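Below is how a single chain appears once it has passed through the pipeline. First comes the sequence as given, then the structure the pipeline wrote out for it. We keep one example in the README because the format questions we get most often are answered faster by looking than by reading.
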Amino acid sequence: MFKEACRDLSDSDLEDLKNATFSAMEDLIEQAGTYLNEKKYLAAVLA
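Resulting structure:
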């Protein structure tokens, strides 16, 4: 279904989609790292 939808997109639209996807992935990875660091800090404080 996703591949079918992408067939109708222009090259620039596909590039925009790729960039938005990578940007979202980077944001999620950064948020996960922040979350894990906060958990480690809290564990150290409570230890």
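Residues 2-46 form one domain.

See the next section for the split statistics.
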